[in-house]
Write a structure and sequence with these properties.
Blueprint lengths: L4 H9 L8 H14 L4 H14 L5 H4 L4 H8 L8 H21 L2 H6 L7 E2 L13 H12 L7 H10 L3 E2 L6 H5 L2
Helix pairs in contact: 2-3, 2-6, 2-9, 8-9
Length: 180
C-alpha cells in the first residue's frame, strides 16, 4: 500500500469508475500507452503536464500538430520524451476522430467490448488480478486494426480497469462495493 496522496486519491475517486466521456476516454488511452514499460506512478505524477502539453487531449487540436510541435514535445521534461509514444498520440487522435465519426462517439465504440456494462470481478487479492485477458486481446487487435498505436493487450486491460470497464478492486476494498 502507498502513502502517496495523489495515488490514493486516484485509486479512491477515479480508478474503476465508469467513464463515458470521449475526451476523457481518449486521454486515458493515451496515458496508458505512455505508461508502456514504466510504472503508472511515473505517468500519474506527470498527468497534469501531459494535459497541458497535449492540449487537454483534444483530438481535433492534436491531429494538427506539426513537426515543430513534435520537436517541442520532445524537449518537454514534464512528459515521457519518447518519440514513438509522442507520435502515437497524434496517430491515435486521427484514429479516434475516425471512430467517433463512424460510431457516433468513441464511447459507443469502446464500451461495446464489454456489452455496454462494466464487468464486475471478485478478486480476493491483488495477486489474482490479470495483466491481460481474452477481452483485452480482442480490444488490442481491433484498436490496432483501426489505426491505434501503443494499444497492446496489457495496455488495453489497464485502460479497461482505469475507465471502469472492469471492476478489479479486490472484494475487501471499499471501492469494490461502491462500484457494483
Amino acid at each position: 500500500m502507498t502513502k502517496e496522496e495523489l495515488y490514493i486519491e486516484y485509486h479512491d475517486k477515479e480508478w474503476g469508475v465508469p467513464v463515458y466521456d470521449d475526451r476523457k476516454l481518449f486521454e486515458m488511452l493515451c496515458l496508458e500507452g505512455a505508461q508502456a514499460g514504466l510504472s503508472w506512478w511515473t505517468i500519474l505524477k506527470k498527468r497534469e503536464n501531459y494535459k497541458e502539453a497535449f492540449d487537454n487531449f483534444e483530438a481535433e487540436k492534436i491531429v494538427k500538430y506539426t513537426e515543430e510541435k513534435l520537436e517541442q514535445l520532445m524537449q518537454d521534461k514534464g512528459i515521457v520524451r519518447n518519440r514513438r509514444k509522442i507520435e502515437s498520440v497524434v496517430t491515435n487522435a486521427k484514429a479516434f476522430l475516425k471512430i467517433r465519426e463512424e460510431c457516433g462517439s468513441f464511447s459507443n465504440y469502446i464500451w461495446k467490448f464489454v456489452d455496454n456494462k462494466p464487468i464486475i470481478n471478485s478478486w480476493k487479492s491483488i495477486g489474482e488480478v490479470p495483466a491481460s485477458n481474452e477481452l483485452s486481446d480482442k480490444m488490442s487487435k481491433q484498436l490496432k486494426k483501426d489505426g491505434f498505436k501503443f494499444v497492446g493487450s496489457t495496455i488495453c486491460y489497464s485502460f479497461m480497469q482505469a475507465v471502469g470497464m472492469v471492476n478489479d478492486h479486490t472484494t475487501e476494498c471499499f471501492c469494490y462495493t461502491k462500484l457494483i
